[in-house]
């Protein structure tokens, strides 16, 4: 099990005024500090991420604010409520960076909603991967205390959010359930909290911190369902459905009491870009984040995990060349990481070479997504799962 992500500071203190971060970062107007031009950074970039009110958005806003204050390079935030809305603008060039969910991985692999004529495998690159905890919560007055109690309950099926729906399926499997055992409610990610308040949803998938979930917990006592103590069989589908996920223990999440801990899913929502972003730009941005970490580390509950010595280096997609240079300079890049990165780049090359012919043959197929996964399984070299690679890096 991964080490707990302790949160020593009070969430309520941290959330005071946090709504101002988004406005400040989006407008990127005034600065309380003298901005210094940073070589390699453009005058403005656009970052796509989750909707306002989420912990992910707040993290991005805090960093965007720092970048503007310190460098004068303005950052505009584009909020999206679906996977495509978060990663699509980056692929299309409307945004230059994205802090999205696992859709960055499915876009790289060309899987699921990306197995289409207009998408296919995409040249995604990872640059910064802070760890975080995510899971499902219920209202305490629901009588639900464990995952198996979700049978017959109203369960979210998040619109256009394949990666989160896979995790939700993995969570059900942990409790011995399938989607057929619950009442699926089609809903967007940002609508869940309101549906929990009104009783239209019995369970919600969420980061353990964030203004939205904090507000819900302040009105209705909530409980985070625990995933600890399972047998190997109970976790058997996690590598398949959620390959980036580890078991993670957290405390001081929304609605939790002093000393309370819960085990749920630990993974990163990384900052990503595309292969063609200039290496000097990416490196300059990471150097800025590293050098000015103290400016934003206390801005949100999760900002502390953006420290250069805490971000995760177990990639499911390649690291950008600029990020490789940065991590090599600070002594965190290892021969094993270099080897894995090269394997991922070769995987990308093989997928890109095969995709046009594959699509020509399967464009009219109703199960092209399944056939693409089968082709990759049969034709691409196998790679160590992210969870196993992460363990080797701890040694």
Task: Describe this protein's structure.
- The radius of gyration is 20 Å and the shape is globular.
- It has 395 residues and is an alpha/beta fold.
- Residues 1-34 have low confidence and may be disordered.
- It is built from 15 helices and 13 strands.
- Helix 3 (55-71) links the parallel strand 2 and strand 3 (74-79).
Class based on secondary structure composition and strand pairing: alpha/beta
In oligomeric terms, what are we looking at? single chain
Whole-number mean pLDDT? 89
Low-confidence parts lasting 5 or more residues at pLDDT below 50?
1-34
Number of strands: 13
Task: Give the termini separation.
Answer: 14 Å
SSE string: EHHEHEHEHEEEHEHEHEHEEEHHHHHH
Please specify the SSE layout and strand pairing:
Layout: E1 2-5, H1 11-15, H2 19-27, E2 44-49, H3 55-71, E3 74-79, H4 83-92, E4 97-99, H5 103-109, E5 124-128, E6 131-139, E7 154-158, H6 162-174, E8 183-187, H7 192-198, E9 204-207, H8 211-219, E10 222-224, H9 238-241, E11 246-251, E12 261-268, E13 271-274, H10 279-291, H11 293-296, H12 321-329, H13 335-362, H14 368-379, H15 386-394
Parallel strand pairs: 1-11, 2-3, 2-4, 7-8
Antiparallel strand pairs: 4-13, 5-13, 6-9, 6-10, 6-12, 11-12
Keywords:
13 strands, 17% strand, five-stranded mixed sheet, 395 residues, globular, 15 helices, alpha/beta, six-stranded mixed sheet
Overview in brief:
This protein is an alpha/beta fold and 395 residues long.
């Amino acid at each position: 099990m991964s080490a707990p992500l302790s949160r020593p500071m009070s969430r309520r203190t941290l959330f005071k005024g946090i709504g101002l971060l988004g406005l400040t970062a989006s407008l990127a107007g005034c600065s309380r500090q003298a901005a210094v031009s940073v070589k390699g950074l453009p005058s403005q970039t656009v970052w796509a991420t989750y909707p306002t009110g989420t912990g992910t958005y707040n993290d991005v806003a805090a960093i965007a604010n720092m970048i503007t204050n310190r460098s004068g390079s303005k950052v505009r935030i584009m909020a999206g409520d679906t996977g495509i809305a978060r990663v699509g603008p980056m692929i299309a060039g409307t945004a230059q960076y994205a802090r999205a969910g696992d859709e960055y991985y499915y876009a790289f692999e060309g899987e699921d909603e990306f197995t289409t004529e207009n998408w296919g495998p995409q040249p995604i690159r990872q640059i910064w991967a802070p760890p975080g905890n995510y899971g499902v919560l219920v209202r305490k007055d629901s009588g639900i205390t464990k995952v198996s109690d979700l049978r017959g309950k109203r369960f979210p099926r998040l619109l256009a959010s394949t990666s989160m729906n896979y995790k939700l399926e993995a969570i059900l499997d942990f409790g011995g359930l399938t989607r057929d055992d619950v009442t699926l409610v089609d809903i967007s990610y940002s609508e869940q909290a309101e549906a929990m308040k009104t009783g239209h949803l019995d369970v919600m998938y969420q980061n353990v911190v964030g203004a939205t979930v904090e507000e819900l917990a302040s009105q209705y006592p909530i409980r985070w369902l625990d995933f600890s103590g399972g047998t190997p069989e109970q976790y058997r589908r996690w590598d398949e459905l959620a390959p980036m996920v580890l078991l993670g223990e957290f405390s001081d999440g929304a609605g939790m009491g002093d000393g309370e801990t819960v085990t749920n899913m630990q993974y990163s929502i990384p900052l990503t870009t595309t292969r063609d972003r200039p290496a000097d730009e990416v490196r300059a941005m990471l150097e800025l984040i590293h050098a000015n970490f103290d400016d934003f580390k206390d801005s949100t509950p999760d900002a502390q995990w953006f420290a250069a010595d805490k971000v995760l280096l177990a990639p499911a997609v390649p690291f950008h060349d600029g990020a490789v240079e940065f991590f090599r300079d600070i002594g965190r890049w290892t021969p094993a990481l270099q080897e894995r990165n090269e394997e991922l780049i070769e995987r990308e090359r093989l997928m890109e070479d095969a995709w046009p012919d594959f699509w020509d043959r399967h464009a009219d197929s109703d199960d092209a997504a399944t056939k693409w996964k089968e082709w990759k399984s049969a034709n691409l070299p196998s790679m160590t799962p992210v969870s196993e690679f992460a363990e080797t890096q701890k040694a």
